[in-house]
Batch of 3 targets.
Target 1
Amino acid sequence: MRIAFCCTGTAPEPWLQGLSSALPGAEVQVWAPGAPQADFAVVWAPPQAFIDDQPGLKALFNIGAGVDALLKLRLPPGLPVVRLDDAGMSVQMAEYVCHAAIRHFREFDVYEAESAQGQWSFHKPRARADFPVGVMGLGVLGARVAQALRTFEFPVNGWSRTPKNMAGALEGVRGFAGANGFHDFLAESRILVNLLPLTADTQNILDRNALQRLQPGGYVINVARGAHLVDDDLLALLASGHLAGATLDVFRTEPLPAEHPFWGHPAITITPHTSARTLRDESIAQIARKIAAFANGQPLAQLSGVVDVSLGY
Ligand code: NDP
Ligand code: OXD
């Protein structure tokens, strides 16, 4: 079996070694134009030339959860695309979002600024009930985040495309679904967490019309994709005082350009697309297990993380 590795911005050697030892007998190589035809590919944001050069692929394995960059390419009809299913990302995302929500709710950002000035001052505790958190996207990451926020006793709302059974992992989360449920979901939320995939339906979803529906003093945590958020609308609602702040991990252009007004904004916390990193060992183990199962005749549809290309996630 031949596996082509084509991951933009990723040092290949440890992946080649890891995949080779997890799949003894497989020939794993970095793709270069004209390379022999591979059976499977492990990819992150590959060029169109890679897809065009490898018409014999049986499946593409994406080394991230989001497939928006991959689905911008012209893929052969019916070519299965498999994304990472958690692989150690959901716990990182839960840490990141809980940290950002709690930092805002408990005013740790204010205490940090005051202590830097040598100031010892108390703030009146705020009521958790006044900080309902809305999680957009209740998939692998969103569900874990909603669950983690519940353990801190925040009121949590969740919004997904299709209605969810709120028992089990989503116990205690108030569910909203579809375009019809969106405005009610926003009106019931003050802290907004975005964990949607970037698709034709969700691009620019965090615009003025949506963000102004959040409760006054709203706070935005965007950990999905920069193109979900209309930057100028966020800035305008921060300026008007309707929004109190934002923690942003993802941006329309990454790295965030030096001249972007988000830099240095007193109400915006920036991190460099690091909320949930791809963990190499977990990801190699997951991908190798799926390639082996598929190669042994298990239908791909039985494996987790198979993307519905028509929906875009
Ligand atoms: P999933 O596919 O498991 O979950 C997607 C969720 O979004 C589902 O609940 C789905 O609804 C919902 N959804 C999709 N379209 C719509 C819509 N039009 N309206 C309402 N809800 C919708 O994805 P993951 O949880 O694994 O990942 C989510 C995203 O997080 C990724 O696509 C990626 O962009 C981002 N990400 C960011 C990282 C970072 O470091 N910043 C790291 C990893 C991922 P339903 O359940 O009904 O299908
Ligand atoms: C992902 C990401 O989609 O890293 O996995 O953003």
Target 2
Amino acid sequence: MRIDLLTLFPEMFPPVLASSIVGRAADAGIADYHVHDIRQYAQNKHAKVDDRPFGGGPGMVLMCQPVYDAVLSVEALDARPATRIVLTPQGEPLRQKRVEWLATQERLLFIAGHYEGFDERVLEELNPLELSIGDYVLSGGELAALVIVDAVVRLLPGALGHEQSAAEDSFSTATTKGGQTLLDCPHYTRPREWRGREVPEVLLSGDHAAIAAWRDEERRKRTRERRPDLASHPASPLAPPD
Ligand code: ADE
């Protein structure tokens, strides 16, 4: 998968993209990352990319031209069509289903804004997928883009050491029962006792069916306790019968 990242703060990306799973995926040739500075596409001599909002108000608005030219120039660097993504708190709230869909694309192009956001007309023209990583406001889209890159790249075939481990995460389609999402169960490793706390007996039993049943029940219990919003979804096996 090719991933292009357009930003006014290119220095934010390399340390994260070189680390952990996303870094290993690049080394293995599973993902390749290209970071581009939007300022390089400004046409005025001061490399100005933002201006005051029409109608007044605080902050600055990213101008259409540098963003538009950056997207078109970067897209032309590779023949594969790119799925355009703009990061904004006004976007679709990101969920694992969307992450799984993004992982099926051959090329993603992220556009990270700063200040008060983008001139609306460049969004109309580019028609990107607008995504939010939560109901809070970041200083810019860079960290949101990195969150999404991490969530997507770890799903690419070969990115995780152990192929199964992504399938059992909270929110993965594989933990969805009857169309419902469940949180992950608790995990334990050695020692068997720590500060008086014991590992649940069933996990030491070697009885794989009993372990699977225990984990399934723990997932349901956690979902009920911590995320009743998920548990009360109409498709949920945890929802009370009609
Ligand atoms: N940019 C600023 N806040 C954001 C958020 N919550 N999600 C995505 N992009 C953003």
Target 3
Amino acid sequence: MAKTYKIAVMPGDGTGPEVVNEGIKVLQAAAKKFDFNLELTHFDYGGDRYLATGEVLPANAVAELSKHDAIFLGAIGHPKVKPGILEKGILLALRFALDQYINLRPVILYPNVETPLKGKGPADIDFVVVRENTEGLYVGAGGVLKKGTPDEVAIQESINTRKGVERCIRFAFDFARKRNKRKKVTLCGKTNVLTFAFDLWERAFYEVAKEYPDIATDYAHVDATCMWMVKNPEWFDVIVTDNLFGDIITDLGAMIQGGMGIAAGGNINPVGVSMFEPIGGSAPKYTGKNVINPLAAIGAGQMMLDYLGETKAAQAIELAIRKVVAEKMQSMSAGKMGYGTKEVGDLVVAAV
Ligand code: IPM
Ligand code: MN
């Protein structure tokens, strides 16, 4: 009998619902072709719900989402809600509550996609960032004193646990092995200044590395990583780093792979419920205009199928994206694709 996967769909805010629609169209086409079923349940978590109810996530949200095999997310972020409320209350809350300790962000330049890096092509830009996703500066540790006075003090602490760091590093090595490309893991840190946090990272990194004699190791400070990503992106295969550095370098990564329109990611709990999303945000100014690029969401759907074990279907979607990008699209940018959002979805469906 054909397998059925229970997917929680969270379209979210802004252009999230539009790109999620196209993602689902493609997922359904793949399901039909590769003979599995998707049982989709929609959740309205996001800015509009918050404005209507005053609640970011209902009390049963985590329990409800946990009943699913995976979560497919559009975008969180609403122009009428103060920055931070939805991001912390929904996106970060779910990453933490579901212990999605890896944020996996491939940086792949597809043929015919424009990169701002002069002289670099698809052979040069093909790596993956493994970002720790539940610790570091994101945990909200710290506090303020004497707020609003000239003596105000603000402290924001980076929490790094041996367990959290080690499981992230181990994931990166396993991934490099599975990827089977350059077979190299680069630790991105700041050992010259953050001598507590990245000392722990560095020791854990080289200890774990001993278990992977087939994988080469490398180290780069985060500032240098930014430089090498522009100058010599071909040096990278798998980069492992902490939460904040991973956040920052993956925006740079998205730019060199053609922009937010094509950058997908997965919030992974290898033994739990993972959440897949386009990494670009809700882009509210494009909402409802049928101009936003759905390929990042479609790519997130592809990563989701890969994680669910539907490897062939995932490969078919990847090939379809490559084909549509190479043969049809003029640009990855909103409004400049040569097609509308829905039409790009249709092209990928046809190619699948
Ligand atoms: C991302 C985003 C989030 C992050 C924000 C919206 C909290 O920038 O997924 O990269 O910083 O992780
Ligand atoms: Mn980010």
